[in-house]
Amino acid sequence: MAEAKTNGQTDTRRGYLEVDGSGAMTELIFLLELSGPMADLESDLIDGFNDMIARLREERTDLLVWLWKEIAGCIDHKEITHCIDHNTRVPITEDAALIEQGCFTRLLTLAEQYRHEHPEDFVEQDSERGRGGLFDSIGASIHMAQLVHREDRPEERPVRTMFIIITDNTEIERANQYYWTPDRVRELVQQQEKEAGWEFVFLGTNIDAKQVAGDIGIPAENAAQFACDAAGVRENFASLGAMILEFSATGVALPTWSRKISEHLAKTQSGRS
User: Fold this and answer.
1) Which of 120, 129, 185, 249 places its Cα 20 to 30 Å from the Cα of 92?
2) How far apart are the first and last CA of the chain?
3) Which residues, listed in sequence order, are joined to residue 69 by a DSSP beta bridge?
4) What angle do CA 257, 259, 265 make, to 5 degrees?
5) pLDDT at position 51
6) Which pLDDT tens digit goes with each residue over 250-270?
7) Average pLDDT over residues 225-229
8) Alpha-carbon distance 255 to 224, whole Å?
9) Dist. CA 131–CA 36, nearest whole Å
10) Which residues contact 158 (CB under 8 A, 6 or more apart)?
11) Backbone conformation region of residue 184, classed left if phi is above 0, alpha if psi is from -120 to 50, else beta
């Protein structure tokens, strides 16, 4: 995050919707995935996210939020249901920028109900698919955002875009079974960084976040591993919110943005040893 990022535009022009006339818009694309241990922290995750959005609203109204929510249900480490839901890009001041409590559980319930009623749609998945679909989700969501940007009128396009991945996926080694392999995702990430000035951030728990981020072209300084507990989730969103404020104001973020996340993780790990 060394130099200011813009989508090929200057910061003097006004952006999408001109929400309050305060300047160019910054777009935040969130991919939140619960497919493992963090499912037990659903309430903490939602509270942490919504608290972050509330704090951001107090400081800036020139932010756009695009939220992708993903959850998978598993039995004996085998995926039985996989569901993705996303909203449209909205100003941060709208209620659609928030997550309703119980959202992930309801998504999973609806997906499992559909699976029960239409088992024929899932015949080929059971023996092969694992939770490596994280990369499929990243690739698909980037691709959809690309399509939306292409349809935007120049005055609608956000000046900056930050793509933020938050995951507890612990079985990414199966990812090569999917269309969006790490190599394909890396090409797409690097393309968006170079051609559109996007910034990518990767936050993971129970995985080597920096290694996984590096596999798909995200710099190590933009990645952090957080503790899979309520305090770790809260610190995750507190630090992320502070970094977003810096990025939206200047196009850059301090390299120390994830220091408190790492400190809490180290404290948690030392307590277990």
Assistant:
1) 185
2) 34
3) 32, 85
4) 130
5) 97
6) 888 888 999 999 999 999 988
7) 95
8) 11
9) 9
10) 7, 15, 16, 24, 25, 26, 27, 64
11) alpha
Q: Determine the pLDDT at residue 4.
A: 65
Predicted local distance difference test score (pLDDT) of residue 190: 96
Looking at domain 25-272, its CATH superfamily turns out to be: von Willebrand factor, type A domain (3.40.50.410)
Task: Note the pLDDT of residue 33.
Answer: 84
- The amino acid at 229: D
Q: How large is the angle between the packed helices 259-272 and 230-250, nearest 10 degrees? A: 160
| Residues 6 or more apart in contact with residue 246 via CB below 8 angstroms | 252, 253, 254, 257
pLDDT of residue 117: 75
Task: For residue 162, report the phi and psi dihedrals to the nearest 5 degrees.
Answer: -120, 125
SS (H, E, C) 98-161: CCCCCHHHHHHHHHHHHHHHCHHHHCCCCCCCCHHHHHHHHHHHHHHHHHHHHHCCHHHCCCEE
The per-residue pLDDT for range 110-140, each reduced to its tens digit, is 666 766 676 665 544 443 444 447 888 899 8
Quote the crossing angle between the two packed helices 103-117 and 42-59, to the nearest 10°. 130
CA angle 250, 252, 256 (to 5 degrees): 125
Report DSSP letters for 214-250, one per residue: HHTT--GGGEEE--SSHHHHHHHHHHHHHHHHHHHHH
* Phi, psi dihedrals of residue 25, rounded to the nearest 5°: -90, 145
Tokens of 142: 């980037």
Is the distance from CB of 214 to CB of 235 less than 8 angstroms?
no
The reported pLDDT for the residue numbered 14 is 29
- pLDDT tens digit string along 82-92? 555 666 789 99
Which two structure tokens, joined as six digits, stand for 221? 């300084």
Report the interhelical angle of 134-151 vs 182-191 (nearest 10°). Answer: 30
Give the domain ranges of the chain.
25-272
- What phi and psi, each to the nearest 5 degrees, are found at residue 81? -150, 140
DSSP state, residue 18: G
